[in-house]
Write a structure and sequence with these properties.
The protein has eleven helices and four strands. It has 295 residues and is mainly alpha-helical. β3 and β4 form a beta hairpin. Bound molecules: heme C (2 copies). One heme C binds next to α3, α5 and α6.
């Protein structure tokens, strides 16, 4: 059994109904139990936090975007210590401010409230966030994944993971691995690949970044020459894994050279199984013959 952590009481504010019930009990009114005890947040397990960390740091990149990024370095990693503390998005020329989402800033929201906010565009409730088209996909998080992400961000353990993942870390299992292609499709939605690679994934999108220019996005359809079809499944996984190193966060881009908007340092830390699922999904999608020069 995984060790369970208790939610800090401040993170599960008493609902108005429960307050009313307490008041009624205090003044001696008879009332049937309303299930207030049941509405208390479920305990968060160590496995939940581990999975939340994986989804945040390797797939959805919440604290990487909600940060001050250093675009003099390859892929624009967050300035160390700024992860989750907010910053201007910058990518796509967006001057939107991504607010602070560290545990302190999120303290007024319960895990449940934060999780429902993440799915707000799907009509789950709460204030609608992530409306910009380049943020589209985040609202596709399953309620369970939104819950573990919320629990991780609100946990007293540091939100910040400034060093990339340990490759020997155990693989976090996704909850709905009905089939590997469906898992790949889901990961691509919540990883927002289409925001940069285009709706048909054939790339060629010029992505504006602060400080200089970025390579156009690659064609990641399965096309054998123009796309990723030049690699087999194992090679595709190895390609990402070859970039999975702490050194990736410190590569200086020489002046005048093109940088990349591709979040390599984080996506490269995805589990091999998950990268394989992405390949399996891409293999079922139409191949688009569109050559994009990215090297
Ligand atoms: C590519 C950048 C980007 C990524 C990735 C991203 N966000 Fe955001 N987020 C924003 C921006 C910009 C805003 C403010 C505008 C809006 O709400 O759309 C925002 C708003 C929010 C808000 C509302 C905060 C407030 O004080 O109003 C929360 C909460 C939030 N994001 C959490 C998350 C979580 C959790 C994830 C990961 C699952 C995530 N974000 C991923 C850019 C991003
Ligand atoms: C913020 C923009 C952005 C996002 C988000 C993004 N990419 Fe990319 N990607 C790029 C750019 C730009 C390139 C081309 C430059 C490079 O390779 O660094 C690229 C390159 C790639 C390549 C290399 C292709 C080749 O032929 O060498 C692969 C594979 C890839 N992306 C897959 C993905 C997947 C899968 C996701 C989602 C999980 C994703 N990308 C999300 C911008 C993005």
């Amino acid at each position: 059994m995984p060790k369970t952590l208790r939610q800090p009481t401040s993170s599960s504010p008493t609902s108005y109904g429960c307050l009313l019930l307490r008041f009624s009990l205090a003044v001696g009114l008879a009332m049937a139990p309303t299930g207030c005890e049941r509405s208390a947040a479920p305990p968060v397990s160590a496995a939940d936090l581990e999975r939340g960390a994986y989804l945040v740091n390797q797939v959805t990149l919440c604290t990487t975007c909600h940060a001050e990024r250093d675009w003099s370095l390859y892929s624009g990693p967050p300035v160390p210590g700024s992860e989750g503390r907010g910053g201007i998005v910058g990518v796509f020329g967006s001057s939107d401010f991504a607010p602070r989402i560290d545990a302190e800033a999120l303290a007024p929201l319960s895990v449940k409230e934060l999780a429902s906010r993440l799915g707000a565009r799907k009509g789950v409730g709460g204030r609608v966030i992530h409306l910009s088209p380049f943020l589209s996909g985040l609202e596709q998080l399953t309620p369970e994944d939104a819950r573990v992400i919320a629990a991780y961000l609100k946990s007293p353990t540091p939100v910040v993971e400034s060093s990339p993942p340990d490759p020997s870390r155990p693989v976090a299992e996704l909850h709905d691995p009905i089939d590997t292609r469906a898992r790949g499709e889901y990961l691509m939605r919540i990883g927002r690949c289409a925001a940069c690679h285009g709706p048909d994934l054939s790339g060629g999108v010029e992505i504006e970044i602060p400080l200089g220019r970025s390579l156009p996005s690659a064609n990641i359809t399965i096309h054998p020459t123009a796309g990723i079809g030049r690699m087999n499944r194992a090679e595709f996984i190895d390609y990402f894994k070859s970039l999975d190193s702490p050194d990736m966060l410190r590569v200086v881009v020489p002046e005048g050279e093109l940088n990349t908007a591709m979040p390599w340092p984080w996506l490269a830390g995805m589990a091999r199984e998950d990268l394989g699922s992405i390949y399996d999904y891409l293999a079922t999608q139409p191949a688009v013959d569109r050559a994009v020069a990215i090297h």
